[in-house]
Design a protein that fits this description.
- This protein is an all-alpha fold and 700 residues long.
- It has 21 helices and six strands.
- Helix 6 runs antiparallel to helix 7.
- The longest helix has 132 residues.
- This is TXIP1 protein.
- Keywords: Coiled coil.
């Protein structure tokens, strides 16, 4: 029983302790059985159990009275109960229990199980001795054992959950700490921005107080100037009066001297008196006129002072207006910054929520390094294939590698039949042998096909159909028997090799997804650039500095960032710090026809610029679902004003797929028009009006 209880109680993590405990119990079982027999013999010697204390059985007080128990009795002398000795068998049981407990090793993790075993044995002694109550006591014991076993099972089942809860709690704690660190950085940034704005506000307040101080100073200066002017005016008037008095006194002195002289000479007194009277009248008139002028021009300041003060006042007023405008502008900018800060905080909260949802719902990024184990060539070749590619492009590369592997293992193809819906170069019934060429062989064959077709088109003066020429070329080169085998083989190889430009472009033109003019246009673009770079190389050394690459002259419609991307692509293979670029090496291809980064960037920009051009055309057409030729011409003229009539007619014919002169009445859905234009050679003729307006604004 002890072994079974220990097996229920112990967990998987404590297997060693359980084994030790079980070994201890197995070694202790013989001793316990002998002790149990001796004890049961001693207990059965008398044939009955002793009551203790014997003479106080009638005086026991049942404190927790139950319906089936005896009625309460009055307590007797408790001190007398304590002096009565215990029964001999009770002392033996307690002594046995004490020895067993002392003999146990309680230092182990399952000490409680070991402590329970002696009590269980004592209880079994009682059950065996009390024959009358044995069924009831056995049932009680079994129920307790079942309850203990159930509790052990429950504890053992909850232990993994406890470990899982601990793990989840640690993960949540780490996530919370990471989010707190992230928020801490953002909060510090916002606090710094807040401090900067507060300093800015304080500076504006100081400037405002400075302006108010200057305004008060101007008013004070105006009052001071008015007071000084009044004082100067009073002094001027007093000086004039003083001069008048001095002149009068001087005149009197002269008169007295003249009287003395005339008296000595005997001049006429009447004549002198009349002259004096007339002089006094003139003096009175002059004094009246002087007083009138003083009264009239009392508030007038000198013109020079007035002009100086007026100029100073206008300068201060203009400066105050300028400062006021600057303050208003700064105040508006401050409000705008606050609004931007609020929107930024909302966006940050939104992005945090989206990040949390993405972390919960999005699938993890695949480990692309595992693909190196399944790709021929190992990690080195996979690293070369995956360099600089996105996840979507890596999926295409992986599918291409898988398809090429399956294609190499395929010995024969199944013919498509001879129906009219089957292309002319695939019309065959039955199995077709796979030629299993290498990529290099396929690229060389395709280059030879383009070369032969260009010679034929130049000789006949018109462009031939690529599917028909493809079949005739193979029949001429390999005969009718092997032509269809090579046709199916080349078709499957070009269909699967999407990363190779020569093979993918041949497949798209062969199946009609892209017009042949687009392929020739890209090649002509690259050829023209080669000629431009060769013309810039006056020494024919094959090297040019990056600033003399003449990319701006060769591509006047490209943006600055596109030109910079081409310059960066041209520097991709530089091994030294020298700025000289081997422009001839930029156009070289490997044995499989793959170009370098520079030519690849040129072709990708050609596609992106065409898509951008068609997107502007779609935006110019607004929300219409169908469009006729006139509306389409008007839209082309709006987005490309320098387009000529011949190019416009070419685009209209491509969009409506008609050769007549008046396709004006035909209405085609906008999506169909854009799809047809995307398949052809469509590009911008002149600069964009939006770009010109932006350039003019920057120049102003």
């Amino acid at each position: 029983k002890v072994s079974s209880l220990l097996s229920h109680r112990t967990s998987p993590g404590s297997s060693s302790e359980t084994a030790n405990c079980q070994m201890h119990i197995r070694t202790a079982k013989p001793t316990l059985c002998k002790k149990q027999k001796a004890l049961s013999f001693q207990l059965s010697a008398r044939g009955q159990w002793s009551t203790w204390p014997a003479f106080t059985a009638e005086q026991i007080v049942l404190r927790n009275h139950k319906p089936c128990s005896a009625p309460e009795r009055a307590p007797s002398n408790e001190q007398a109960l304590l002096t009565i000795p215990k029964p001999h068998h009770l002392e033996q049981l307690e002594s046995y229990l004490k020895k067993e407990l002392q003999a146990l090793d309680l230092t182990k993790g399952i000490s409680q199980e070991l402590r329970l075993q002696p009590y269980r044995e004592i209880f079994e002694f009682f059950i065996d001795s009390l024959k009358t109550y044995k069924p009831l006591l056995s049932a009680i014991k079994n129920e307790y054992e079942a309850t203990l076993a159930h509790q052990k099972e429950t504890i053992r089942a909850l232990e993994p959950l406890k470990a899982m809860v601990t793990t989840v709690s640690e993960e949540c704690t780490q996530q919370i700490l990471a989010l707190q660190e992230k928020e801490k950085v953002e909060i510090n940034t916002l606090k710094q921005e807040k401090q900067h704005l507060l300093k800015f506000i304080d500076n504006m307040k100081e400037e405002k107080s400075s302006l108010q101080t200057q305004t008060h100073m101007v008013e004070h200066l105006q009052l001071s100037v008015a007071e000084e002017y009044t004082r100067y005016l009073q002094e001027h008037s007093a000086r004039k009066l003083l001069l008048a008095k001095l002149n009068e006194m001087h005149s009197e002195q002269l008169d007295m001297k003249q009287h003395q002289v005339q008296g000595g000479k005997g001049e006429d007194v009447v004549k002198l008196t009349l002259a004096l009277k007339m002089a006094r009248q003139d003096l009175t008139k002059a004094q009246v006129k002087l007083n009138a002028m003083t009264a009239e021009y009392g508030d007038v300041v000198p013109r020079r002072d007035f002009d100086s003060l007026e100029k100073k006042y206008s300068d201060l007023l203009q400066e105050m207006k300028t400062l006021r405008n600057d303050f208003d502008q700064l105040h508006e900018e401050y409000g705008t910054l606050l609004e931007i800060h609020r929107e930024t905080a909302e966006e940050r909260d939104s992005f945090c929520t989206q990040l949390q949802e993405a972390e919960r719902s999005c699938t993890p990024r695949p480990n692309w390094a595992k693909c190196s184990e399944a790709i021929p060539g190992g990690a080195e070749r996979w690293g070369h294939l995956a360099e600089g590619k996105s996840s979507d492009e890596l999926v295409d590369v992986l599918l291409e590698e898988i398809g090429m592997g399956v294609l190499k293992e395929t010995n024969a193809f199944c013919g498509w039949g001879k129906g009219d819906e089957v292309p002319v170069y695939l019309r065959y019934e039955g199995e077709i042998k796979n030629k299993n060429p290498t990529k290099k062989d396929v690229v060389n064959i395709l280059k030879d096909i383009w070369k032969e077709k260009a010679a034929l088109d130049q000789q006949t003066g018109k462009q031939s159909s690529l599917p028909e020429f493809f079949l005739s070329y193979l029949q001429k080169k390999h005969g009718d028997a092997s032509a269809m085998e090579w046709s199916y083989t080349l078709y499957e190889y070009t269909r699967l090799c999407r990363s190779n430009h020569i093979m993918s472009s041949f497949y798209e033109i062969l199946t009609g997804k892209v017009a042949e003019e687009q392929y020739h246009s890209q090649n002509q673009l690259i050829s023209n650039l080669q000629k431009e770079l060769a013309a810039c190389d006056s020494s024919s050394s094959g090297f040019l500095p990056s600033e003399q690459m003449a990319l701006r002259e060769a591509f006047p419609l490209k943006r600055r960032d596109a030109i910079q991307e081409l310059v960066n692509a041209s520097r991709f293979s530089l091994d030294s710090t020298d700025d000289l670029i081997d422009y001839r090496a930029l156009f070289e291809e490997d044995e499989e026809g793959n170009p370098g980064p520079f030519v690849a960037k040129l072709r990708s920009q050609y596609i992106s610029e065409k898509q951008e051009y068609l997107q502007e055309l779609k935006n110019s057409l607004a929300d219409v679902t169908e469009v006729n030729a006139d509306d389409l011409k008007a839209a082309f003229c709006r987005i490309d004003p320098e387009i000529d009539g011949q190019m416009l007619d070419t685009y209209i014919s491509l969009a409506y797929q008609v050769r007549r002169e008046h396709p004006d009445q035909e209405v085609v859905p906008v999506d169909t028009v854009l799809e047809r234009l995307c398949a052809g050679d469509v590009r911008r003729v002149g600069p964009s009006p939006r770009k010109e307006s932006t350039t003019d604004f920057e120049g102003e």
